[in-house]
Design goal:
Blueprint lengths: L2 E6 L8 H10 L4 E4 L1 E2 L2 E2 L5 H14 L2 E5 L12 H17 L4 E4 L13 H17 L3 E5 L9 H11 L4 E5 L1 H6 L4 H9 L3 E6 L1 E2 L6 E2 L8 H10 L5 E4 L14 H18 L3 E2 L1
Parallel strand pairs: 1-12, 1-13, 2-5, 6-7, 7-8, 8-9, 9-12
Antiparallel strand pairs: 3-4, 10-11
Length: 276
């Protein structure tokens, strides 16, 4: 049976690294996508904290699937030189935590159309991709509502304009739904050849509510089945985004994460996919 690797945003479990690690182990997940720990963004960790967390992960047998950076979640007309310096920190973190991937976004564009800022986005992404390639790091562009690459056509445009092996896509079906896109019919066909990672959360079209995998309209089962049939063996990274007060899926951070993990395993089993 073909297999994928499970990961997740452990900062949704808790700020405490011990609770993050314990919940990952309880769910038999051997990787995390590193966005934050100790209530601190990964890019802002002090050197001693980096070393401490690395040792904790090593002792627990947990690897880092990607740096879940916030790079690109700023306006495209902001100080991009300053933001590039922050991007360099994200690449450094990838090297420090022995991962090949850094998650990025393609910039907000308030007060102008996506078309009007396209050249600026492409220019900055070219600059970032070349730098990442020099460090043997792959950038993973995540689709998100409100950025340049929030719809499939612009995601595809960005990926083809850069046309580099060190820029791939993270596919987030819930984010597409929140942008008014059907993931299975309107996004997956155009982006499937570029997808190196999945962010696993689902959503309902009727109210954009985020729900666990397979509980919404994201079409995760057929998408993942097609991906694996085509040779995908990468990371499915849980990003539950479940609310504590949700009447069906709420609870503590650890409880929500565990519900999301169980739902993903059910989707994978239904699609005939195993996990490493």
């Amino acid at each position: 049976m073909p297999a994928v690797k499970l990961s997740g945003f452990a900062d949704e479990i808790a700020a405490d690294p011990r609770e993050q690690i314990a919940t990952l182990q309880q769910n038999q997940i051997r990787y995390l996508e590193l966005r934050g720990v100790w209530n601190t963004n990964v890019l802002d960790l002090e050197p001693d904290r980096i070393e401490e967390f690395r040792h904790m992960l090593d002792d627990a047998g947990i690897g880092v699937s990607a740096i879940g950076s916030p790079i690109g979640k700023v306006p495209i007309r902001s100080d991009l030189d300053a933001h590039f310096a922050r991007f360099q920190v994200a690449v450094e973190r990838a090297c420090q935590f022995a991962t090949a991937y850094v998650r990025v976004f393609s910039f907000y564009h308030p007060d102008e159309s996506a078309e009007d800022c396209r050249s600026a986005v492409i220019e900055q992404f070219s600059r970032m991709t070349e730098y990442a390639a020099g460090a043997e790091v792959v950038l993973l562009h995540e689709n998100e509502k409100g950025i340049f690459g929030d719809i499939p056509s612009r995601c595809h445009d960005l990926l083809t304009a850069i046309d580099h092996d060190h820029l791939r896509a993270t596919f987030d079906p819930a984010n597409f739904i929140q942008a008014g896109i059907d993931p299975a019919t309107e996004a997956w066909p155009d982006l499937r050849e570029y997808v190196a990672c999945f962010h696993i959360k689902d959503a309902l079209k009727r109210d954009k509510r985020v729900v666990p995998a397979g509980c919404g309209d994201g079409g995760l089962e057929p998408i993942l089945a097609q991906a694996v049939a085509a040779g995908f063996r990468g990371f499915c990274s849980l990003e539950p985004h479940l609310k504590a007060e949700d009447p069906d899926y709420g609870g503590s951070g650890a409880e929500c994460f565990s519900k999301a993990a169980g739902a993903l395993r059910a989707v994978l089993a239904a699609a005939g996919i195993d996990t490493e």
